[in-house]
Amino acid sequence: MTQHKFAVGDKVALVTNSANANVRSGIYTIIRRMPASSQGCQYRAKSALDSHERVVDEAQLRRA
Predict the structure, then answer these.
(1) Cα gap 35→32, rounded to integer Å
(2) Looking at the DSSP assignment, which residues form a beta bridge with residue 55?
(3) Residues 2-10, mean pLDDT to the nearest whole number
């Protein structure tokens, strides 16, 4: 079973690349852990800049 790396309330940095270039990078707060998919763990995260929420893959996140 896959373990989530981040907990609810953690501050993380979203890292963008060519695959997710339309996503705003920056600091996000983990709102909820999502069930693991075939790509790995996912989270619901809220942007500190504009309060926008999105679902992100764990591979896109780094500790802030």
Answers:
(1) 10
(2) 44
(3) 93
